[in-house]
Amino acid sequence: MRTSNLIQSYISNNPATQQYNAEKAVKDFDVNKELLNRTFIKPLPSNGKLLRPSLFDLPSEFRKDVMYDLRALKHAAKGEANDHELGRLNDVGMKMGGLAIAAYLFTKKQTPMTKIFEFIGLGTFFAAMDLWPKLFIQLPAYLIHGVNVRQQYEDSFGRKKMFYQDHQFIPWDLYSEQEINSIGDRLNVPKDIPNRREFIQEKMRKIALQNNTLWMLTAGFATPVMSALMCNLLEKPVSNYLSKVKSQKADNLMSNFTDEIKKYKFDDNAKHLESLLQVHTGKPITPELYKEISANITEGLDYMIAHGINKDLEQMMPTESKYTLAPENLAKIQQTIQNAYSKIGLTPEELAKLVPDDNSIINALNERSLLNGDFKDFSEHSKVLQDLLDSRIVELEKTNHPLIKKIIFARTKLVHQPEIGKDSALFKSFKQTSATILTEDMAQALREISATMNSFKAGNIVLEKYTHLKVAQAPETEFADAWNEATKKIFKSLNFTPEEIKKGRFDREIAGAVFREKLEKVVSDPKSYATFMDEMEKTLSTLHSKISKIDITQDASRSQYITHVDNTFQYAVDGLKKHGMKNAVDSLIGYGSDAKTSAKGLMFDFISDRSLGIKSSFYRLLNMVDLYHRISMVENIQGALTEKMPREIKEECAELAKSLMMEAHSSDYAVKFWQKRNPAPNLGDYSQIESSKGKVVNRYFGKTPASGLAELSNDREYFKAVMKLMFQEDLHKDTLDKIGSSGFLEDFKKYRNQVFEILGGDQYFIKPNHIVGAAPKESTSLLRFLLMGSASDEMAFKHFNQVFNSKKWFNMFGKVGAGLAGATILSQFFFGHMKKVTPKQAKEVK
Amino acid sequence: MILPISDFNGKNLVNFGTNKKEENNVSYDHDTLLKNNFVTRTRIGLDKFTKAFTLYPAKGIAGSKNSNFYEFLTMGTVPYVVGSITLMSIFNSTNKHFNPFDNKNAAKLGNKMALGVILYAAFKSISKLFTTVPVKMATGIDTELPYAKVNYLLQENPDDYNNLTSIEYHKVGESVDFPRWDQLYGDPKKGEPINFRYDKIAKKNGLGTNLNDSDQDVKPMYKEVLVKSKLAKSISSFLWAATGVALAFQTPWEDYFNVATLKFWKPKEFGHSLKVLGKSFVESVKELWHGDKESLSKINKHSGKVMICTAAAATILGVLNTIHITKKPASYHSVLDKNKESVVS
Q1: Considering CB atoms only, which of B72, B231, B325 is closest to A77?
Q2: Residue A498 C-alpha, separation from nearest chain B C-alpha, in angstroms
Q3: Which chain A residues contact residue B64 at CB under 8 A?
Q4: pLDDT (tens digit, 0 to 9) for every residue of chain B, 345 residues total?
Q5: Domain count of chain A?
Q6: What is the 3-state secondary structure (H, E, C) of chain B?
Q7: Is the same domain home to A647 and A783?
Q8: Domain-located, residue A830
Q9: Are residues A820 and A783 in the same domain?
Q10: Å from A490 to nearest chain B CA?
């Protein structure tokens, strides 16, 4: 058979069946012996190696890892990845998820600092995950035992793995005999024991396992705590860095103003206007069209400017004063009447008799001169048609039409009914077509106005961005940073104890009491006062120089901001004046030469108001410190607490001045203060007040029962004395010694004088004579508010809370972190213990 | 579970198999395939969770010879759980020391952070079903099929003759390099055809029925599905987890935080709390999707949509890639060219 022939042929020709004669056979090679012992079955030689990367290798290692991950992703997408690659991709997924969280929260946060900390938080979390085992597991274990418990190796396929990942499969062959012995020496393993390598390996394994377990047990506590502590520590440097970046960014806005405004284009806006103009040029301007055009031009502008532009546009395009009769009105009127009567069952012939034809309507309107021309409304037209309809109904009535009642009823629905208060259907059938036509000239004017305002909007956006970054009352602006820095420094120099901070955080009155107690102590000692004033002088000098750089009122000639504001507003004014837009111009630059009431005035006032508010707060603080020192030393108070003033009133006056400086608001000055005093003070004692340890030693004040006290609203001299004591007495020489050469001294003196005159000169209708000068001084409530600044006790209250909150958190989690780190390191001293094997024992075992 | 060695002497052996009665018994004498259902998953989850906090750390700290990679991986639950609690604590534990105003503000953010931790874990866990369920429906391959592995232990000391086995819970497709194919074969002693599981998968994927070696045809496909589904889960589950965190940061949750209570013994308050929880969840999803309506920034308005769509897209693409199997065996017809003459001798 053919099949058997084929098989026989295959067997006879199969090379495998031939005897293999090796030319170089191994000497004495016994195949049976080899098969029996299986000694020829050996593992492939290992290409793996232990990894010991140095710091310099990290970039290349990082690159290798990224490339590996990309290859892994490619393999996994094709379904060809291995376990190791999939494990790496899981880590990639985790990091992607982390980035997604940070990116989303980034969009939810408002300020650069909070935004950037979303990513810093993520980074520190991953860093903590990596650093905790390295710093508190791997390093101590290495230092204590000489064993690297997080040793990595690269297997034969180039995959990075942890050496002690699986304790059932540790590739010990990667460690040389010498390395193992050296580790054994470090582990104090006796040198002459049998199977020393195995013993050392077991000890290494044990130490690694115990440390890996410790890592698992501690990582849950350690990673979040370590990450949070890292964020806490990074807060200040990041804040300082961002502060510089923001300041530079703001300055760049002014330096590159021309380029910056080009970034804001209003192309969509211009296109929309152009399409409106193209469609409607030559056609009547309807109220809807007017609204669309005015909304387009005023979009993004503040209300004041938009209102001015609208007023001008209303004059340019009157839409509601004149209407014309449109040709299509005729058919619509007929249709309205027909609709009203078609439902009541009239025949087409009857309907034709009832509905006026074209000629009838035209003639009727023409007779009353209502056909051509401009009309305020169409009520007259409606009346004419009503009459026309009535005459036709009368004709039908004469024929005793069976449906006459229905016809009359339907008529009432058509015509005007004052009692219902609605416009009639007939009236509504007149389409209100504006008599004002959008001419080509008008369209061109609107194009130019729009272009001018779009350019103004761009400039305004850049200017507002600048002012926001510099001075806005918002977190992380340059002014806010300067405020925070100054507050922290001043309060820090007073060395409040944790107990005082804890007590003062509850409420501002307690904070004020704590602050006052501390201040009285400091001012009572010239040495501590000098130290404190030194710090205050430094802080206020820094603050003053920072504010002066921004505050245009300080140096207007150097301010690019002023130039850009002037140019931006002037450009808009020139553009608008061409088209006679007086109202818009007024809203931009004010009436006449007074820019205070204009949008331009606001651009300057915003900055100067903010700087005045901040400076006032710190000048007030400085003034308070000086007042407390003057009272403590009983010096520079005699001008207010004169020899003619009874001692009891002096004591009341000193107490009121100290309290006001600490906690008063501008409203307290507005009502000329309120204090319960003794209406019958002791008039036999005119001595000066005394003080001890910074406090007034009261001989009379506080001795009269509360029921005997009253508010003395007629004592105008008392008001003057308190104001004088606070703001007009000379500064103490100790104060002047420190701030005498400061750049802010004149400004500070000016502030004291302003408060004395403006707040002291403000008239209160209930106490009209409580003014410091001969006549009342006119001022705005805003100015009085800004001059008062922030109350000192409120500053202290906020500071106490900030310090307490951050310290509380740091104390709690700092201790947890330190405790955990200590316990982790300490426990490693107990790891790796094994029964000691001595050569003697080994011999006995043998 | 460490079993006494006496259970393995052949006398007291229980006939463990895959029927329901036997599965409910937690002892096994050989590696046993388990059904992937809620009860089994819960039992395995509880077993692993308990041991992760008790037995495995004890063995690890003692330096046991028998500690292995499975135990190390299982202990990964510890930092996950402890870390979540610590994170929640970091955001909230100091609040009570602040003044009422600061406390209120800190709690508002802290509660959202804590909820974020919970929703991260919940969304990550649940989102895996978005891949495994459609993949199983489309391919018939259950990528999460569990089995109990009997692990034989080394003696800790020469006198140790007891407790020399332990049970580990793995998944058939846990390793894509070495899937436990043996667990998918039927037991002829029970009358099961040897390849009945492979037959089902082959039929589901259009390889036909009555195949001689369905296991050989299915294995490459099975492996491909395992790899691709693992990739899909790795990427999408973390994106869903991130979506969970984003959801936790929506304002409607503040309504829930105002009434939240776990005092189930006060049914009225607890019921109301649950009702507000549901409402807050729905409103938060809407807010996440619609974004900040009043914001001028497009990023603020659309970031939530981007978040949800990215996670959904990752899942959909991952599933589509998984069910697009490229390693199907070549069919008889595609191997032979019908246009050419062939001779079978």
Answers
A1: B231
A2: 14
A3: 209
A4: 344 444 444 444 433 333 444 444 457 888 999 999 999 999 999 999 999 999 999 999 999 999 999 999 999 999 999 999 999 999 898 888 888 888 888 888 899 999 999 999 999 999 999 999 999 999 999 999 999 999 888 888 777 777 688 899 999 999 999 999 999 999 998 899 999 999 999 999 988 888 888 999 999 999 999 999 999 999 999 999 999 999 999 999 999 998 988 888 989 999 999 999 999 999 999 999 998 777 777 888 899 999 999 999 999 999 999 999 988 887 655 655 656 666 654
A5: 4
A6: CEECHHHHCCCCCCCCCCCHHHHHCCCCCCCEECCCCHHHHHHHHHHHHHHHHCHHHHHHHHCCCCCCHHHHHHCCHHHHHHHHHHHHHHHHCCHHHCCHHHHHHHHHHHHHHHHHHHHHHHHHHHHHHHHHHHHHHHHCCCCCCEEEEEEECCCCCCCCCCCCEEEEEEECCCCCCCCCHHHHCCCHHHCCCCCHHHHHHHHHCCCCCCCCCHHHHHHHHHHHHHHHHHHHHHHHHHHHHHHHHHHHCCCCHHHHHHHCCCCCCCHHHHHHHHHHHHHHHHHHHHHHHHCCCCCCCHHHHHHHHHHHHHHHHHHHHHHHHHHCCCCCCCCHHHHCCCCCCCCCC
A7: yes
A8: yes
A9: no
A10: 23
Residues A611 and A732 in one domain: yes
Cα→Cα distances B219→B8, B141, B340, Å: 32, 11, 31
Structure tokens at A622: 């400085």
Does A293 map to a domain?
no
Confirm whether A296 is domain-assigned: no
Q: For A97, which of B76, B106, B239 is closest by C-beta distance?
A: B239
- Please indicate, yes or no, whether residues A661 and A616 belong to a single structural domain of this protein: yes
- Which residue matches tokens 């900055």? A607
Chain B CA closest to residue A165: B69
CA distance A774 to chain B (A): 46
CB contact under 8 A, A167 and B69: yes
pLDDT digits (tens, 9 = 90+) for A499-525: 999 999 988 999 999 999 999 999 999
Q: Which candidate in A9, A73, A86 is best for mutational testing of the B interface (most B CBs within 10 A)?
A: A86
d(CA B250, CA B285): 8
Query: Both A822 and A775 in a single domain?
Result: no
User: Can you give the pTM of this predicted structure?
Assistant: 0.75
Cβ contacts below 8 Å, chain A against chain B, sum to 180
pLDDT digits (tens, 9 = 90+) for A191-228: 888 889 999 999 999 999 999 999 999 999 999 999 99
Q: What is the mean pLDDT of chain A?
A: 87
A100/B307 CB distance under 8 A: yes
Q: In chain A, which residues have their Cβ closer than 8 Å to the Cβ of B80?
A: 220
Give contacts of A103 with chain B, Cβ < 8 Å: 303
Cα–Cα distance list, A83 to A72, A89, A93, B128, B177 (Å) = 10, 10, 15, 18, 6
A130 in the same domain as A96:
no
Confidence of residue A417 (pLDDT cuts 50, 70, 90): low
Tell if the CB–CB gap between B234 and A107 is shorter than 8 Å: no
**What domain range includes position A506?**
472-550+598-790
How distant is the Cα of B205 from the closest Cα of chain A, in angstroms? 17
Both A661 and A760 in one domain: the answer is: yes
Cα of B190 to nearest chain A Cα, Å: 34
Domain match, A635 and A758 both = yes
Which among B68, B237, B307 is the nearest to A166, CB-wise? B68
Q: Is residue A143 a part of any domain in this protein?
A: yes
Could you tell me which chain A residue has the CA closest to the CA of B83? A220
Confidence (pLDDT) at B343 = 61
Q: Which of residues 100-159 of A touch B (CB under 8 A)?
A: 100-101, 103-105, 107-108
Among A383, A405, A434, the domain boundary falls at A434
* A223 touches B at CB < 8 Å: yes
